[in-house]
Design a protein that fits this description.
The structure holds two protein chains of two kinds. Chain A is mainly beta. Chain A contains no helices and ten strands. In chain A, strands 1, 3, 4, 8, 9 and 10 form a six-stranded mixed sheet that branches. In chain A, strands 2-7-6-5 form a four-stranded antiparallel sheet, with no helix packed on it. Chain A is globular and about 40 Å long. In chain B, about 35% of the residues are buried. In chain B, strand 9 and strand 10 form a beta hairpin. Classes of the chains: A mainly beta, B mainly beta.
């Protein structure tokens, strides 16, 4: 199963872009990269996902390298409310179901 | 608004008690999941279900069982609660195609 590696933590200044890296060097061809975040005392929240092309939505952009071994989540203008634990995970289809395995994630702290 | 509802936000139980954690989703999703979350360990998958009456073990199923009698409801059962099962329990659901997980707010269980 493809696993992901993220830094333990990162700081960012309010209003600046936050670039959150993730390595997934063993990802296979049909696996998607998903990003979630968890604000303290809440359940995780979906942000974005992609297969090979870059993706953008109202929350963030996802840049996946051409070899798909790593990706970067970009929050273009970080706010204090973006302080959270961010999870980069790889979708692993298994027997018709989709089992998403979360790691420890990365704590992003946005500072005023 | 899509919703995953967990029956209790906070529970306190005694060692040896039987504990039921209930989860209901209103999105007609095929897949449902139970995770536990502990400091420093991230989210760990206990069980998941991809259809009514179907279940698959996750990474840490020991000491737990599940029930999926109806599509919208997925229950986690601790037959004989132990102190090492004190944790935050998170339920999630997803449809088969998109794979985006929707999480409940979590149930914080304390076993004394």
């Amino acid at each position: 199963d493809a696993k992901t590696t993220q830094p333990t933590s990162m700081d960012c200044a309010e209003g600046r872009a936050a670039n959150l890296p993730c390595n997934h060097s063993t990802i296979s061809g049909n696996e998607y990269v998903y990003w979630y975040r968890q604000i303290h005392s809440q359940g995780p929240q979906y942000i974005i996902h992609g297969l090979k092309n870059n993706e953008t939505n109202e929350m963030a952009s996802l840049i996946i390298t051409e070899d798909r071994k790593s990706s970067t989540l970009i929050l273009p203008h970080a706010t204090l409310r973006d302080t959270a634990v961010y999870y980069c995970i790889v979708r692993r289809p298994q027997g018709g179901s989709e089992k998403l395995v979360f790691g420890k994630g990365m704590k992003l702290t946005v500072n005023p | 608004d899509v919703k995953v509802t967990q029956s209790s936000r906070y529970l306190v139980k005694r060692t040896g008690e039987k504990v039921f954690l209930e989860c209901v989703q209103d999105m007609d999703h095929e897949n449902m999941f139970w995770y536990r979350q502990d400091p420093g360990l991230g989210l760990r998958l206990i069980y998941f279900s991809y259809d009514v009456k179907m279940k698959e073990k996750g990474d840490i199923p020991e000491g737990y069982s599940v029930s999926r009698e109806k599509k919208e409801r997925f229950s986690l059962i601790l037959e004989s609660a132990s102190t090492n099962q004190t944790s935050m329990y998170l339920c999630a659901s997803s449809d088969r195609v998109a794979g985006e997980l929707f999480f409940g707010e979590g149930s914080r269980l304390t076993v004394l």
